[in-house]
Amino acid sequence: MKIFLLVIAVLIGLLQYRLWYGNGGIKEIKAYQQELVELNKQVIEKKERNDALYAEVEDLRKGKEAIEERARYELGMMKEGETFFQVLE
Length: 89
Prior knowledge:
rod-shaped, 0% strand
């Protein structure tokens, strides 16, 4: 009877070890869950960036106002008849 209990105790110990520290154990699952949370944050950030870029592309395709705005601020262009004033502070 004592040998049977000893064998059962050893088996329970081995199973507990595999549960906590073995391949696919609780420790590994928690690490994967943390990695999944971080990856989901990155996906959300990239999706927001892509949505903003898509909106900008659509705006450039549809109207001249966005193109004109970019030409003015990024390239320093002006329309004919306009006067450029630079204010120094």
